[in-house]
Specification:
79% of the residues lie in helices and 0% in strands. Helix 1 runs antiparallel to helix 3 and helix 8 runs antiparallel to helix 9.
Length: 292
C-alpha cells in the first residue's frame, strides 16, 4: 500500500506543481491577463506550490522510508512554512473576492479602486499578515517543554498533534490557536460569503451576458474557497482534540486542493481558456514557420 500511495501522491504533487507553474507562465506571457484578478491568481498559484511543498515531499518520502523521522528544527520549519503559506492562501482568496466585488458592483470605479498601487498593497498586506500569523503560531507551540514522547500522530508537524507531546498545561495555548487559526479561517470565510451575496444581488440588475461571465469567474473562485476553507474550519475551529478523520481531511486541503485550483480556473474561466487557445495557436504557427 505504501508503494501505491507513493506513486499516487507523487503524481498528484507533480500535477500540482506543473499546473500552477503553467498558470503563472500563462498569466505572465498573455498581456490580456495583466489585470488585478489574474495578478492575485498568479499569487494564488505560487502559494499553492509552496503550500503543498511544505508537507507533500516529506510525506511522499516517508512512504518509501523505513524510519519516518523529522528533526526538531525540521518540525519547526515545516510548521512555520505550512501556516505561512496556508494563511497567505486564505488572505489572497479573500482579497480576490474583494476584487470581484469591485469589478461587478462598482464597474465604473473599478480602475480607481483596484489601481496598481492598491492591488500591490493588498497583496503585500496578505503576505505580511500570513507572516505574523505563522510566527505567532509557531512561537506559541514550540515555547512549551516537551516530554520524552516523540511520536507525532500525523503525517506532518501541525499544531494539535505537536501540542499533544507537551509536558505542560496547553489549555491557554489551545484557545490562542483557535483564535489565531480557527477565527481567521471562519472570519475570512464569512467575509467571502457576504461579498458573494452582495455580488449575486447586484447581478440581478445586469444583462444575461454580464451575468454569465461574472458567474463563470465567481463560480471558479467560490469552488476553490469551499474546497479550502471548509476543511480548515473543521480542523482549527475546535479545541486540541483529534479525530481519525483529521488526517484524510488534512490530505485533502494540503495536497488535493492545491492541485485542483489550476484545473478549476482552467475549466471554468473563459479568459484563461481563450489565453490557452491563443498560446497553443501561436506555438503551432511558430512550428509551421520553422518547418517552412
Amino acid at each position: 500500500m505504501e508503494i501505491i500511495f507513493f506513486v499516487v501522491f507523487l503524481i498528484v504533487y507533480l500535477v500540482n506543481v506543473v499546473g500552477n507553474i503553467g498558470m503563472i507562465i500563462l498569466i505572465t506571457t498573455d498581456t490580456q491577463l495583466h489585470t488585478p484578478m489574474y495578478f492575485f491568481l498568479s499569487n494564488l498559484s505560487f502559494v499553492d506550490i509552496a503550500y503543498s511543498s511544505a508537507t507533500a515531499p516529506k510525506m511522499i518520502e516517508d512512504f518509501v522510508s523505513e524510519k519516518k523521522t523529522i528533526s526538531y528544527w525540521g518540525c519547526i520549519t515545516q510548521m512555520f512554512t505550512f501556516h505561512f503559506f496556508g494563511c497567505a492562501e486564505i488572505f489572497v482568496l479573500t482579497v480576490m473576492a474583494f476584487d470581484r466585488y469591485a469589478a461587478i458592483c462598482q464597474p465604473l470605479r473599478y480602475t480607481v479602486i483596484m489601481s496598481a498601487n492598491a492591488y500591490t498593497v493588498l497583496a503585500s498586506l496578505s503576505w505580511l499578515g500570513a507572516l505574523g500569523h505563522s510566527f505567532v503560531q509557531t512561537l506559541l507551540t514550540f515555547q512549551l517543554p516537551f516530554c520524552n514522547a516523540q511520536v507525532i500522530d500525523h503525517y506532518f508537524c501541525d499544531v494539535h498533534p505537536v501540542l499533544k507531546l507537551a509536558c505542560a498545561d496547553t489549555t491557554l495555548i489551545n484557545m490562542l490557536v483557535v483564535a489565531n487559526s480557527g477565527l481567521i479561517s471562519l472570519g475570512c470565510f464569512l467575509i467571502l460569503l457576504a461579498s458573494y451575496k452582495v455580488i449575486l444581488l447586484s447581478l440581478q440588475k445586469q444583462s444575461a451576458e454580464s451575468r454569465r461571465k461574472a458567474l463563470s469567474t465567481c463560480g471558479s473562485h467560490l469552488t476553490v474557497v469551499t474546497f479550502f476553507f471548509v476543511p480548515c474550519i473543521f480542523i482549527y475551529l475546535r479545541p486540541s482534540t483529534t479525530f481519525p478523520l483529521d488526517k484524510a481531511v488534512s490530505v485533502f486541503y494540503t495536497t488535493i486542493t492545491p492541485m485542483l485550483n489550476p484545473l478549476i480556473y482552467t475549466l471554468r474561466n473563459e479568459d484563461v481558456k481563450n489565453a490557452m487557445r491563443q498560446l497553443w495557436s501561436s506555438k503551432i504557427s511558430l512550428k509551421e514557420k520553422q518547418r517552412g
